[in-house]
Amino acid sequence: MALLFIPFTFLDFLDILLVAVLLYQFYNLIKGSAAVNIFIGIFSIYMVWLLVKALNMQLLSSILGQVIGVGIIALIIVFQQEIRRFLLLMGTRYMSKRFGLENLFTVGDKPQPKVRIKSIMRACISLSRNKTGGLMVIGRNSALELYAETGDIINANTSSRLIETIFYKGSPMHDGAIIIIGDKIFASRCILPVSQNLELPAQFGMRHRAALGMSESNDSLVIIISEETGNISFAEYGKITSRISIKELSDKLESEFSGVNPTL
Fold first, then answer.
1. Backbone phi, psi, residue 29, to 5°
2. Domain match, 96 and 137 both
3. Buried b (16+ CB within 10 A) or exposed e, 193-226
């Protein structure tokens, strides 16, 4: 007697589950951007190809088959930034933190000084109260030389007074971001990549877009102080958490950088 159903094992279930998780994570990365429309278009072509194959339409099936055949290369080109963000998320947020894989490539390296959290906190409190705009990039593991070269290299000890002076409206260095590596303000007046996310709320200005774009490009934590409202926000891994309290910012910095040895 022929089997009425296709055999279904636990490995089949695990296979489907893993594919579903990967697709869900990838969708979260492209959600709100123009890439989601491209993804829908490619998926539609693939479904049409499956349909014409099932209907045995040889000519159309052959044409679509050629398109699908080079689809992997096209996907890499079209979704290069999304793929980069996905790999960055997997490598820094999950794998390296949970399994300590970053230590495999840092044996013998001299540890960097820790981030001066209290100085950053004092500066954020002052900037927020005075409604002075600010943009601070705090490095984790990704190299930030490329972004630092767009501004002025200062390599000075992190202090609240220096941060406030940089972002003072009359300062020639207030426009742009500062990059903090370990206990140093490495560069100021830096230009950050702007996010192309289409779902950002209208009240988010260029600082928020630049912060989000930076967090999409590497694993840094970016702090934003709004010039209009004085609200404090931070961006990481392609997401913005807005209107946080001083306590929430302090807890975030303590949890992320109290034991971190960042690299430049």
1. -70, -35
2. no
3. bebebeeeeeebeebbbbbbbbbbbbbbbbbbbb
The amino acid that residue 16 corresponds to is I
What is the pLDDT at residue 82?
64
Tell me the CB-side half-sphere exposure of residue 247, using CA atoms within 13 A: 0
Q: How far apart are the C-alpha atoms of 176 and 167, rounded to whole Å?
A: 9
Tokens of 187: 């560069």
pLDDT level of residue 130 (50, 70, 90 thresholds): very high
Kindly state whether residues 152 and 240 are assigned to the same domain. yes
Q: Which of 39, 71, 105 is the last residue of a domain?
A: 105
Instruction: Please give, one letter per residue, the 3-state secondary structure of 170-183.
Output: CCCCCCCEEEEECC
Where do we find the tokens 């963000």?
85
Q: Which of 105, 136, 166 is the last residue of a domain?
A: 105
> Does 14 reside within a domain?
yes
Which tens digit of pLDDT belongs to each residue from 169-219? 888 888 899 999 999 999 999 999 888 777 777 788 899 999 998 998 888
Q: Enter the tokens of residue 254.
A: 């303590």
> Does residue 263 lie within any of the structural domains?
no
Q: Using DSSP, state whether 107 is helix, strand or coil.
A: coil
Instruction: Tell me, yes or no, whether 226 lies in a domain.
Output: yes
- Structure token digits, residue 233: 């926000």
Return the structure tokens found at 95.
């794998």
Can you give the pLDDT at residue 239?
A: 87
**Structure tokens, 130:** 């005075």
Q: Which domain holds residue 156?
A: 117-257
Are both 75 and 142 inside the same structural domain?
no
Q: What confidence score (pLDDT) does residue 1 get?
A: 44
